[in-house]
Specification:
The chain is mostly beta strands. The chain contains 1 helix and 23 strands. A hairpin with a 2-residue loop joins strand 5 and strand 6. It is elongated and about 85 Å long. The N terminus is likely disordered.
């Protein structure tokens, strides 16, 4: 068991693996949200309510008819294009019958192979509501369903965990993400609470995970927009211990701003002007943030990662600029912030300028 293991990592490019894996499915169009005929607007997200084969099924025929049934009518294009098989099998045709999507495969399924049929969260109903976290259906053409499992939670910092893909690779093959192959050996999807499961793994076996957050929703990894982060641990599953569970994977969005929260204390009894917070980047003084505190002196604002000088002052003439000679201010607070930091309890105390009674 790997109970309560914690992996801390930020998005970074893999080493010596070439370009990174894109899911390779074109983004479908989106229907506009609107009221269903004769009723209130439909704001309920759709769900997958049935599939053939069922998740966990074994002895699935190599020429099996694969179907997915949704809770309501779906927008055909975005939904059809969000559906794929891993390991990759070309889908020749997607046929709709009411709320059920049937897949016509270009080739038969491989013998003794475990597959994940997944629906990305970009699938939408006819009123534009997205599926959200997505759905994974795992089945096998082998005589029995492999009982290896990796499970845990994505602790997302600076983005929503829902719909994060967990790409799983057999470490014995020595492969990492590739730009076109979509060749992961298994796949998991994080739900709305960040919980994920990667079932159907052969044991004994050693596995690596990569977390992929498709932040721009186009199902293709783009380094400037998305997150692709390797989990540094290799998970070894044995016949005696076929499950690695209770994992906590902390994934940080390197582009997420830091959040600063706290209060300004003013014991001077001055009521002129407006109390403001200003932050100046230590590396570029032209990069500044200026915020007014609330009625109780509290502040809550965001800045990019880096080193900053934070200060509060009473802007007596309301010109949004600090005058050291006659405006009360706090001592500067120099702080280093990292992406997605959430710093609370910060306190800045206003004091009179030197020489002012």
């Amino acid at each position: 068991m790997h109970d309560a293991a914690v992996a801390h990592f930020t998005s970074r490019a893999p080493r010596a693996t070439g370009t990174l894996l894109a899911l390779g499915i074109a983004l479908g169009g989106c229907a506009k949200k609107g009221p269903p005929s004769g009723g209130p607007p439909d704001l309920e997200p759709p769900r997958v309510i049935a599939s053939a084969p069922d998740s966990g099924a074994s002895r699935v025929a190599r020429d099996a008819r694969l179907t997915i049934t949704f809770s309501e009518g779906m927008e055909p294009r975005s939904t059809g294009e969000s559906v794929a098989l891993a390991p990759r099998v070309e889908i020749r045709q997607r046929r709709w019958s009411g709320r059920t999507l049937a897949l016509v495969l270009a080739h038969p399924l491989a013998p003794a192979q475990t597959y994940t049929l997944f629906v990305g969260g970009e699938a939408r109903d006819r009123h534009g509501n997205p599926l959200g976290a997505g759905t994974a259906i795992v089945f096998s053409t082998a005589d029995s369903f492999p009982h290896g499992l990796i499970a845990g939670k994505v602790d997302a910092r600076g983005f929503s965990a829902a719909g994060t893909y967990l790409w799983c690779y057999d470490a014995a093959r020595g492969r990492g993400p590739d730009s076109t192959a979509r060749d992961f050996d298994a796949l998991g999807l994080a739900d709305g609470n960040g919980q994920f499961r990667v079932p159907g793994l052969a044991v004994p076996g050693r596995y690596r995970l990569w977390a992929f957050a498709d932040l721009n929703g186009n199902r293709s990894f783009e380094p400037d927009a998305d997150i692709l982060a390797p989990v540094d641990t290799t998970f070894e599953l044995t016949r005696e211990q076929p499950t690695a569970s209770g994992l906590l994977l902390r994934v940080i969005n390197p582009r997420a701003p830091a959040r600063l929260r706290g209060a300004v204390l003013d014991s001077l009894g001055d009521s002129l002007g407006i109390v403001r917070i200003f932050a100046v980047s230590d590396t570029d003084s032209t990069v500044r943030r200026l915020e007014a505190v609330d009625d109780r002196g509290g502040f809550d604002f965001q800045i990019t990662s880096g080193t900053w000088r934070l200060r509060a002052f009473r802007d007596r003439d309301k010109n949004r600029a600090y005058r050291p000679a006659d405006e009360p201010a706090s001592a500067p607070l120099v702080m280093r912030v990292e992406p997605a930091d959430d710093l609370t309890g910060l306190t800045l105390v206003l004091r009179r300028p030197a020489g002012v009674p």
